[in-house]
């Protein structure tokens, strides 16, 4: 999310010059709900190229060869479970992750996700309204949105309060096309570009507030209508303070959703499996209560179990190398995925 770090080579070609149908993300499937768990995998950015190939209405972003690093998990709980809901009374959902400690609080609706604040043992941040909107749907290729906000930030260990001022968020659906990740190919993807910045000010007794920190974000999110949260995220954060040199943080991660399926039904799969191929452990994500069955190439049942939560890790290190078929039956429909053990 930083405006000065990224230089996009080439001319921007307006969407209106092309006859392709524009992609719209409705928001019906994109907003996390209480009980959801979303997995990401960090990618090595060696060879990463932001622009993609082709015009803005028919881009191809091929990231299939990027190397994978550690797995990440984000899960969503009732704000009442955090024990600090009094600080964010309007929150409808709280995010927990193994990336950073603490909680992020959101106000959500059918088609939007707005940040209310965050809290951990070191820092408390509160937006004064839900205008710090991260996603607002529906959004169509070529659309843009803008929001402003103010708030407060406290470094708890130092008992230091700062006012958040000049908060700005600019959102543009800047391209559409086909996204290829290490785990699958997704057509009709919409890329959303989000630029955000704010200043943190304190009263140092000089008569006027002093800006002691600035933050600039430049993030890109690749959305697909059928999947919750972005399939791919790339972004840069620049933080500048009076006491430190500028710090730059880069993020590149994707959801390991497998799109190779034997299911001819074109509705979205309620099933995610990774890594694939697998040699030690295989992670399965599906609806709670789904019956999971794995068959070998002769049709023999290798595994049958029922999910008591929406994720399961199984040890395949002793399985014979080769191809298997994994079936997830939720009672309403069955999804199938080909898996490889090597």
Write the layout of secondary structure elements.
Layout: E1 24-25, E2 37-43, E3 59-62, E4 68-77, E5 93-97, E6 103-108, E7 112-119, E8 123-127, E9 133-136, E10 139-140, E11 144-155, E12 160-181, E13 184-202, E14 210-223, E15 232-241, E16 247-254, E17 271-274, E18 281-286, E19 291-296, E20 301-306, E21 311-315, E22 322-329, E23 334-341
Parallel strand pairs: 3-12
Antiparallel strand pairs: 1-10, 2-4, 2-16, 4-5, 5-6, 6-7, 7-8, 7-9, 8-11, 11-12, 12-13, 13-14, 14-15, 15-16, 17-18, 18-21, 19-20, 19-22, 22-23
Strand order of the largest sheet: 2-4-5-6-7-8-11-12-13-14-15-16
Tally of distinct domains: 2
**Could you tell me the mean pLDDT?**
85
Give the low-confidence spans. Answer: 1-13, 260-269
- In total, how many beta strands? 23
Spatial gap, N to C terminus: 39 Å
What coarse outline follows from CA principal-axis ratios?
globular
Fraction of helical residues: under 10%
Number of helical elements:
0
Structural class: mainly beta
The run of helices and strands is: EEEEEEEEEEEEEEEEEEEEEEE
Q: Biggest sheet: strands, sense, closure?
A: 12 strands, antiparallel, barrel
The radius of gyration over CA amounts to 22 Å
User: How much of the polypeptide forms β-strand, as a percent range?
Assistant: over 45%
């Amino acid at each position: 999310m930083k405006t000065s770090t990224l230089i996009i080579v080439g001319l921007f070609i307006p969407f209106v010059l092309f006859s392709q149908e524009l992609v719209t993300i409705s928001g019906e499937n994109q907003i996390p709900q209480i009980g959801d768990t979303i997995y990401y995998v960090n990618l090595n950015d060696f060879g990463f190229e932001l622009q993609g190939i082709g015009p803005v209405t028919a881009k191809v972003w091929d990231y299939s060869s990027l190397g994978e690093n550690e797995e990440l998990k984000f899960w969503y709980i009732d704000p009442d479970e955090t024990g600090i809901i009094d600080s964010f009374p309007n929150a409808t959902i709280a995010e927990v992750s193994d990336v950073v400690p603490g909680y992020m609080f959101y106000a959500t609706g059918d088609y939007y996700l707005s940040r209310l604040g965050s809290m951990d043992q070191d820092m408390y941040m509160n937006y004064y309204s839900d205008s710090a909107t991260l996603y607002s749907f529906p959004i169509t290729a070529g659309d843009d949105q803008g929001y402003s906000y103010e708030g407060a930030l406290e470094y708890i260990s130092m008992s230091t309060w700062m006012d958040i001022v000049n908060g700005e968020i600019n959102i543009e659906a800047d391209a559409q096309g086909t996204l290829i990740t290490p785990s699958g190919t997704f057509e009709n993807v919409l890329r959303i570009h989000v630029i955000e910045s704010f200043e943190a000010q304190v009263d140092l007794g000089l008569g006027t507030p002093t800006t002691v920190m600035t933050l600039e974000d430049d993030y890109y999110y690749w959305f697909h209508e059928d999947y919750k949260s972005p399939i791919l995220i790339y972004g840069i954060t620049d933080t500048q303070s009076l006491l430190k040199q500028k710090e730059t943080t880069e993020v590149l991660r994707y959801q390991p959703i497998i799109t190779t399926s034997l299911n001819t039904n074109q509705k979205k799969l309620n099933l995610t499996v990774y890594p694939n191929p697998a040699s030690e452990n295989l992670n399965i994500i599906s609806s709670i209560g789904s019956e999971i069955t794995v068959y070998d190439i002769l049709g023999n049942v290798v595994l049958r179990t029922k999910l008591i939560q929406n994720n399961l890790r199984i040890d395949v290190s002793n399985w014979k190398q080769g191809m298997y078929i994994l079936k997830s039956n939720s009672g309403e429909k069955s999804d199938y995925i080909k898996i490889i053990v090597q």
